[in-house]
Amino acid sequence: WKKKKRSRSRERHRKDRRKRRSRSRGLSSSSSPERGRDRAARSRELRRRRDGSKSSVSSVSSPSPPPPRGREEPGQQLSLQERLRLREEKKKQAALMKALETPEEKRARRLAKKEAKERKKREKMGWGEEYMGYTNTDNPFGDNNLLGTFIWSKALEKKGISHLDEKDLKERNKRIQEDNRLELQKVKQLRLEREREKAMREQELEMLQREKEAEHFKTWEEQEDNFHLQQAKLRSKIRIRDGRAKPIDLLAKYISAEDDDLAVEMHEPYTFLNGLTVSDMEDLVEDIQVYMELEQGKNVDFWRDMTIITEDEIAKLRKLEASGKGGPGERRDGVNASVSSDVQSVFKGKTYNQLQALYQGIESKIRAGGPNLDIGYWESLLQQLKAYMARARLRERHQDVLRQKLYKLKQEQGVESEPLFPIIKREPASPSDSLEAQPGPSSEPEAEQDTEAKGEAEGEAVLMEEDLIQQSLDDYDAGKYSPRLLGPNELPFDAHVLEAEEDTHRLLLLRQQLQVTGDASESTDDIFFRKAKEGMGADEAQFSVEMPLTGKAYLWADKYRPRKPRFFNRVHTGFEWNKYNQTHYDFDNPPPKIVQGYKFNIFYPDLIDKRSTPEYFLEACQDNKDFAILRFHAGPPYEDIAFKIVNREWEYSHRHGFRCQFANGIFQLWFHFKRYRYRR
């Protein structure tokens, strides 16, 4: 029944729709000719009125004399009437356009008018530009009644303003919206200010971070330079130890020995250049530049002087090579060969201050100039003089270092300090000058001035190594092999003089004391052996099989005679009662003994550097993996010594007898091997 009722209502609706459509079609067909005739009449009327308005406007706008001031009211009335007439004409034109427009144009015009009205309304309500484009259908809030005014009656009653009319409420809402808008602008301004301050703080933090990173980078650079310097020194030590030292290694060792209290270098640093070729010296100059960069200003005077001397030696060698080939070396370099020996004799043997005075005198002579002055000769002298000045600086520095170290050694030993090198005092030129000695005159007349001679109160010339050698040769040629007899005036003030009889009596007393005590029969080695044998048990045996080492060159071999140290070693043996030995052996028939540990006692009584502790190195045995090589290294004058031991893991705990110490000239290394227990 319900289905039949629904179908009937649907049929009825369909019939009604068909009737309405047919009626609308009939009306439109009957009214279409009338509507066309009306449109044509309206267009003709519109054209006629336009032509009339144009003629009237032209007549009005035609030039006419201005009316007098006393008759302004008729003109004003005329203009007012004209304006009213134009307004009426405009209204008629608008009405005609409305009559002639199509339905689409009409709809668009009404929508534009409605939008303009809504915009004006929103402006009155205080909406901003960002909310002007919102409509009921197009807004981000999903509000279908956005353009309508919501009235909250309960809130108005609670606030006591429900009696206000709609206009007052709109004004009130407008003020509230304006206040909210101003507050929003303030909040936005504060937010922008906070963002600006935050950006400034971030920028400051970034700058601080950059400064910290720059400081860290600077420290990293310094650490990297220090690391490279230490690596360079380590490479130098390894090359020196292996007997393949380069000149830069010897120079680095020399400059580092100045900071060491016990290391003594007897030769000047420029003596390391003897026997080098041109390519070796060029490599040395590059290595010196690397050391100067790594040390960052430390020892810069030393490296600069060595660079000057090396470059001078390179120039000399190249000149010799060129002269040997008969090429450009024959050309004149400012100093004749016959004069060169005289020039060298002038420069040789002078101190740095004297050479500096010569240098200043030659420079002033070159600046003064003259018609007969040989500039090439004097400039060549300056170049040679720079090398001599560098050698003099290094020589004086070397002698100062030796004096300081000798003074420290004598202070440690309680001996009063004396002059390290002999001093030659020049004899005064005349008896009148006996109160103050002046330095010896130079063979160059231009370098000796009276003002400089008077300014020096006392001159000293330190004997060089060549002078000492020459003095020894002269003494040998003279045949004076016995010590020279000293007079009472030549003895030092603190010297204790003994008569021959008193010296003989003291010698006899010492001999009698030795005969009574018998201590003279026990040497230093016997004392060491006696100390090493203390505490030797029955399960220990003497171990004295030395492992031969390959020939190794020592840098200190020219100063000290290399020798092997004395030693007294013991090997600790015992039984290992494991499961197998417990099963197959007993105390009456024990198992074979195995090595359980070693005790090494190496004697270094004559070690030069008492503060350097001897070291041991465990190296693999190439022949048999079951054994290892234990090598001991101490320093001059002792060579390395090595032993072949069992290759097992050591027990480093002192509770298991481990000992590694150096005391009273004895280096002791005692250790036992680890015992491994079987665990299921």
Automatic annotation (TrEMBL):
Alphabetical keyword list: Coiled coil
Residue segments, region Disordered: 1-123, 418-457
Compositional bias per record (Basic and acidic residues), positions renumbered to this chain: 34-44, 82-92, 101-118
Sequence ranges assigned to domain Splicing factor cactin central in this UniProt record: 210-398
GO biological process: cellular response to interleukin-1; cellular response to lipopolysaccharide; cellular response to tumor necrosis factor; mRNA cis splicing, via spliceosome; negative regulation of canonical NF-kappaB signal transduction; negative regulation of interferon-beta production; negative regulation of interleukin-8 production; negative regulation of lipopolysaccharide-mediated signaling pathway
Feature: compositional bias, Basic residues: 1-24
Record family assignment: Belongs to the CACTIN family.
Protein name: Splicing factor Cactin
Organism: Serinus canaria (Island canary)
